[in-house]
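Exercise: predict the fold of this chain.
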Amino acid sequence: MLFSRAPLDGVFDAEPAKFEFMKRQYQPSKIRRKRQHGFLNRNSSKSGKATLRNRRREGRKRLTPV
């Protein structure tokens, strides 16, 4: 043989590489959405009450998105 090459370990495996895909950022959950953006959560902090007050002042029909 003119060209002799030593086998490269791990280059040509029998199994193809398995790729794990990253999940998208938004994984909807109704309960999590309620807990984070709901009326009770807004009403439980000073800044949340300010948010509700501002939305009332603007005349919003819905005070919270959920």
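Check your answer against the key: The helical segments are 30-37, 39-42, 46-58.
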